[in-house]
Specification:
The chain is an alpha/beta fold. Helices cover 40% and strands 16% of the residues. A 7-stranded parallel beta sheet has the order 3-2-1-4-5-6-7, with helices on both faces. Strands 10-9-8-11-13-15 form a 6-stranded parallel beta sheet, sandwiched between helices. The chain is globular, with a radius of gyration of 22 Å.
């Protein structure tokens, strides 16, 4: 039975951030999910923390509800703070428990993982189907490095319990889907085909701007390895002497990046304007010769498809926790460097610049093919199908 046959079934989407008040891949994904659910005829609530001064942002077809006050999510090192996670989970528990008889389904982000336990506890005794959506699934070593030997073990155990406690789980890369299976998910995970937003496809620019420019977009945190970019640019300039770079974003590693720029004498080559308005970011992405992201950890890689939509090829770095490499077809829409070392990353940058308009054309063709099936809307409908199947077995309220 499809969602379209149901009489305004009600679903809650649970995530502590909301685009565009806060920006990032997860924020865009969950907003797009909520809007797609509404387009499919569902009554949608988006449960989040307060991120606005007056009224919540307008989201077509979606009721935005603040279930916790505003918190600063990240500490000075770029890590999520535990107290905001607890505060939001407590707000979710109270709100969902109060309205537990009103929901037909819940999609809850497992970032942070306490959200999953809050929803499960709030709905205890009901037959409301729940899908826990995992933006990322971390290895034990990652948790230990991120949170230390004690809290890392606790976080790793909580992730494992959340997977096993969830009737349905979903992820957005083969890597994370396989990790959910390894953690003994109750049933096969719903793995999305992709997260491309088919509603807003920009025109391609099949000739890069001059001079050729490397662009990075994102936070400056250790996992992103932004500080490796200046040395790679210096290496690539041996073959492309007029190569420039624009490193967008900010974060705790900014000082390290600036130190590398100074050490290599690239002050007139590498620009670091920080966070910029969306139109400036879009222009930089469109004009760039290559988008470079040497990150060692990505749950999906939304910047990759956004670059490809503009016809801009990408260079990524191979790493055990980097799911975004799944999006790259070598020589078609970019290259995956063997590491973030200057010679590996630099050689891949040179290969993209040398590819010129031909590579930009195949990059956009890759996107045009991908946008037919690998969309965030298709991902949302896949989750709805799984929730609908589970709900059809749960009682008369679904048999409408």
């Amino acid at each position: 039975m499809g969602a379209g046959t149901l009489a305004r079934v009600r679903i809650a989407v649970v995530y502590d951030c909301l685009f565009p008040v806060t920006t990032g891949g997860g924020e865009r994904q969950y907003r797009a999910f909520a809007e797609t659910f509404a387009d499919e005829g569902w009554s949608v609530e988006y449960l989040t923390r307060r991120q606005w001064e007056q009224e919540p942002p307008y989201v077509p077809g979606v009721d935005v509800v603040a279930v916790s006050p505003s918190f600063r999510l990240y500490d000075d090192t770029g890590n999520r703070r535990p107290l905001p996670a607890l505060g939001f989970a407590w707000g979710v528990l109270r709100y969902v428990r109060k309205h537990r008889r009103e929901y037909d389904a819940v999609l809850v982000s497992a970032l942070p993982v306490l959200n999953v336990f809050a929803v499960r506890l709030a709905l205890a005794g009901t037959r409301v189907p729940v899908c826990a959506d995992f933006l990322e699934v971390w290895r034990r070593d990652q948790w230990l490095e991120y949170s230390g030997p004690v809290m890392g073990r606790v976080a790793n155990a909580l992730q494992r319990w959340a997977v096993r406690a969830s009737p349905l789980v979903s992820a957005h890369s083969r890597m994370n889907g396989d990790r959910l299976v390894a953690l003994r998910a109750r049933r096969a995970p719903v793995v999305s085909p992709g997260l491309i937003d088919a509603r807003d496809v920009p025109p391609a620019q099949l000739v890069a701007g001059e001079p050729p420019t490397v662009v990075y977009v994102g936070r400056h945190i250790p996992d992103k390895r932004v500080e490796s970019i200046p040395a790679a640019v210096a290496w690539a300039r041996e073959a492309v002497p007029n190569l420039q770079a624009v490193i967008l974003g900010d974060g705790e590693q900014r000082a390290a990046v600036e130190a590398e720029v100074q050490r290599l004498g690239l002050q007139d080559v590498v620009a670091m304007p920080g966070f910029v308005d969306q139109d400036v970011l879009d222009g930089a992405m469109r004009d760039a010769a290559v988008l470079v992201n040497p990150s060692r950890r990505e749950g999906y890689g939304l910047a990759v498809v956004e670059a490809c939509a503009a016809g801009t090829p990408v260079v990524l770095a191979q790493a055990p926790d980097n799911a975004s490499v799944e999006l790259v077809e070598e020589g078609i829409n970019g290259f995956v460097a063997a590491s973030e070392r200057p010679d590996d990353l630099g050689a891949a940058i040179v290969a993209v610049v040398d590819g010129g308009p031909r590579l930009r054309a195949t990059t956009r063709h890759w996107f045009d093919e991908a946008v037919r099936t690998r969309t965030v809307q298709a991902a949302a409908r896949g989750i709805l199908a799984a929730l609908t199947e589970a709900g059809a077995k749960s009682g008369d309220r679904w048999r409408r």
